[in-house]
Amino acid sequence: RSVRAPPSKSEIITGEASNNITDYIYEKIGVNLHHQPNHPIGIIKQAIYDYFEASSPGTFSKLDDLYPVVTTTANFDEMLVPPDHVSRSPNDTYYVSSDKVLRCHTSAHQAETLRKGLNAFLVTGDVYRRDSIDATHYPVFHQMEGVRVFSETEWSASGLDATEFAARDLKATLEGLAKHLFGNVECRWLDTYFPFTEPSYELEIFFNGKWLEVLGCGVMQQTILDKNYKPGHRAWAFGLGLERLAMVLFDVPDIRLFWSGDERFLSQFKAGDLKARFKPYSKFPPCYKDMAFWTSPEFSENNLCELVRGIGGDLVEEVVLIDSFTSPKNNKTSNCYRITYRSMNRSLTDEEINALQDKVRADTAEKLKVQLR
Ligand code: PHE
């Protein structure tokens, strides 16, 4: 099948004042790990498709090639994200221009897909978030959104009210999915908040001795459905992170492995095989670099991580705040960050790491306007 061509660089790095997209991020667009059948992300996607096909044959439309650049209207407004919600901040979201973003969740496609008239669908795609750097966070990851709309005949036959009917169906569907992926695991439901669902829940499973959050979901806010579909219906929605599921299921210790293209990683997985467990190959030694500075009111950790990623790329394994104190003399705060550099496939030389770290220090002082110590 044909897959949409990735956007051109000038379409993404627009030069507008609000644009905060780096070359590093641009290069991830169009990679589409979820289109690779033998990649863990593609395997999980297919396993979820298989579950929905088996439990409700022919019901769910599958969309996995929707364009990742969306309007702020689609990403936030139509999903009822409040005007002051943190996710709208350029500290958290990649802005192409003041009214376009790299989608930060697949929920950005809920409203438009409802407007197409679809009443049950799964939308899979790459999503983008500015965040900290560690083994489980990467600025690009993959989500799958699921939506199912019910008509009055469906809930009235059950004797339940519409919300209760949708919530029960949602929970049964997702517990079934968790068991399909993870075997006969124990599930529990926690109440939570999303702007676009009410009530909202988080599903946790007990796996390898721990409770793990696997997805967010809820009964769709009625105004979203009334506006974009038609009145007199009720719906549920969920959103899940494919990397998170794949890391848990396949024992993948570092999210960068998905992007490494390393045969020693890829050769361990095969379409349809949910039983594979990642066998680590020898790791190369890490190199730690500490950097301390007097912080400023504008300083943000996400900006630092973005800067470090822009210089060190996937050689950066982790950025952590290891010390912070406020001087009683001048009331200034000093932060010390430890950057871990490690390649997944070779030894790094002192020279190259020193060169990267020198650039990190220089750019941190200049662009983040903090004073190095
Ligand atoms: N969009 C939410 C997220 O990214 C997940 C979600 C989707 C929650 C749909 C509820 C309903 O965290």
From TrEMBL:
It comes from the Eukaryota. One of its GO terms (molecular function) is tRNA binding. One of its GO terms (cellular component) is mitochondrial matrix. Belongs to the class-II aminoacyl-tRNA synthetase family. SMART domains: FDX-ACB (SM00896). It is found in: Mitochondrion matrix. The lineage of its organism: Eukaryota, Viridiplantae, Chlorophyta, core chlorophytes, Chlorophyceae. Residues 44-280 form the Aminoacyl-transfer RNA synthetases class-II family profile domain. Pfam families: FDX-ACB, tRNA-synt_2d. Its EC number is 6.1.1.20. It is an enzyme of class 6 (ligase). This is phenylalanine--tRNA ligase. GO terms for biological process: phenylalanyl-tRNA aminoacylation. InterPro entries: aa-tRNA-synth_II (IPR006195), aa-tRNA-synth_II/BPL/LPL (IPR045864), Fdx_antiC-bd (IPR005121), Fdx_antiC-bd_sf (IPR036690), Phenylalanyl-tRNA_Synthase (IPR002319). The keyword Ligase applies. Keywords: Aminoacyl-tRNA synthetase, ATP-binding, Ligase, Mitochondrion, Nucleotide-binding, Protein biosynthesis, Transit peptide.
